[in-house]
Amino acid sequence: MFVRLVYESFRRQKRRKLLAGLAITLGVTVATAMIAVATDIGDKINRELRTIGANLVVTPQEDSLDVEIGGVNLKPPTDGAFLNEADLPKILGIFWHNNITAFSPMLYANARLEHGARQVDMVPLVGTYFAKRIIYGTESLTTGVRSTYPAWKVDGAWPGDDSADVVVGAPLAEKLALQPGDHITISLANSTAPARDVRVSGILPEGEDDAHVYLPLAIVQQMLGHPGAVRRILVSALTKPEDAFGRRDPKSMSGAIYDRWYCTPYPAAIALQLTEAIPHSHAEQIRQVAQNEGAVLTRIEGLIFLITLAALFAAALAVSAAMATAIFERRAEVGLMKALGAGKLAVAAVFFAEAALLALLGGLAGFGIGSLLARQIGRSIFASQISISPVLLPVILAIAIIVTFAGSAAAIRRAVGLDPVFALRGEL
Amino acid sequence: VSTPVSDAARDLAASRAKAPHPSMFLRMLIRAAILRRGRAASALFAMTVAAAVATAMLNLYVDVQAKLQREFRNYGANIILVGKNGASLPADTLAKVDATLAGRGIAAPFGMIVARMSDGQPIVVAGTDFDRVQKLDRWWSVNRWPSAAQQALIGVRAMPVVAPNGAPFALTFQGRTLHLAPVGTVQTGAAEDSRIYLSLSDFANWAQVEPQTIEIAANGSVADIDGIMGQIAEAIPSADVRPVRQIMEGEARVLGKTRATLLAAAALIILTAALCVLSTLMGWVFDRRRDFAIMKALGASGRLLNGFFAAEAAALGALGALIGFLAGIGIAAWIGRVNFHAAVVPRFSVLPIVLAGSIAVTLVSAVLPISLLRRVQPAVILRGE
To answer: pTM, whole model, 2 decimals?
Structure first.
């Protein structure tokens, strides 16, 4: 009888049930989409923030002091210690290797550039990767300055990593009257190494790093006579904003706490893992980038979290309103049931069963539509997927049922409390 | 054909035509609200919540740009001013930059030379204004800032080389020697770690070099910053003005994406809230089909009925929007305080939008059921069918 009551109620009141179901579906859609966006926004914004550049730097442990002014290193290029290029792939072997979005080795030298009759002395050369494929075991990553500095756009083309092409900053190109495709001669300052002829494949527009010439790492190593040498490595990593725990000194931690710290992608924890992975190195966060992105991320995540709460609240309210209206419209039915001898419990049970069924159906549909919506938001705003873990489904369904019950409760209580005589006469 | 009518009769007719209707109209509106307090209150509540949520979202959407731009200013300079070909900047440059900025940002001068330590090793020594640097480069991790003359701030990597025991040390530049006391260390993870920082006056007296670089953190949107760059280039023709592209681009991207996400969220939330109002109000109006039928049976015209329900809905919408607006501003301010540690400025420009939107939603939710009911004979409704 109970099942038939519920079944008939759905069969006969298609329009009303559809409206209530629609409200639940909409509410769950909004909730699912917002939860999905909120759980993923940190990662998405973190990737956008990588535009600003690397947040970690690896230098040789026993290095002499840098003599650097305005991005130009005046230290003799062969002075001090080097890292070994062969150790670079080990970066992909650290615990948080999935959080490493890019890294670029850097090797500096100063050179004279000649183009026809024009020449410029003491130009800082930077040997680096542009988009080199690095393989470590089963892991691989295509990396270089094009990934560590995605904001750099060259006029012309980027050099290949095995080519003899270079990228020149705009002010230099102006001084030397260079166009993409021109050939220039590079000779190292204070060196007997033979001069090299290279092709300018692109020009880097004016900006902070426009005083340099960027060229494949191998060429600079060869000219310096230091095969395999790297002066420093810039690493871009997705990190968790530093909190009080992240700022603690790992040396003061005991076993389990240290493990928890080590296994959290704090900038300092990733730096420590890089130091361990690369022999004779010291990794450190670049505070300008690492510290500030923590602040920006915390703010945006907090904002979206609060807005998700607002969305959940609005969705809950919409569901409650729809349920309240749906039940209120059925006073006469309640009156009839009670006149025929149904107890309060039986009436309430019928309504709650209907509400649960509606919540389940609406919740399932809403979860599906919400997932699609989240995916669409991800694609149109961030140009990447926002995926929803299926683990969320039971949570969302549970929320849908609770909200539907909560929304119906007041209306059901009123309906159950009705005097059947008044209800049947429609005088309420 | 005109019938002669006495003045008194005409007056009476005129007063009957005009006076009772508005007062009756108002009375109907007020009685409708009072007699069905419960349902009217729940409709008003739904409207208020919807308006509050919409106000808060719109307010945040407008304000989030300013809030995040402020966070991004912590990244430091987004404009760099350098002397052409590495030359020093004229002595009045900083004053000119300050005048051009006029409070729209902060600038810090830097002079840099390569000096020798007592053992002959080269080291970069920079002169700067510590007060300005503290505001500009907030990420510098400094244990103690110099406060007196002949005190130096030393990079963490330079510290063991320059002053291993924290003892005073000497630097020479072009034959002139300067004795300094190390008071603090600076750590940034970048070039600053290998440098020594002095106050600008110590630096100028000793090295006799004026600053070559001024770093500027300008506030505002990309267009504002472009404008400021143009003004500075015009005011100081002897210098190159360069943007710090990564920071500007990163900022633009993060701001754009955050606002787009916020807009999508706002659209979803406002839609949900509007539907909530719609379903509550439609229920309310449907519920009153008896009132409607009686009015119609008593001879009310279709226009009057529409007008009555529309006026009722509009009044509810306006009232809900006003209360909701105040509540929404409160919510936005609370979110601003909790999340950004700064007040979100109430944007009264949002009010007309919220007001118009609320009234529109309530009108739709009143007129829809009425147009359905109008097709039904009043007798059918009154018989409760």
So the answer is: 0.81
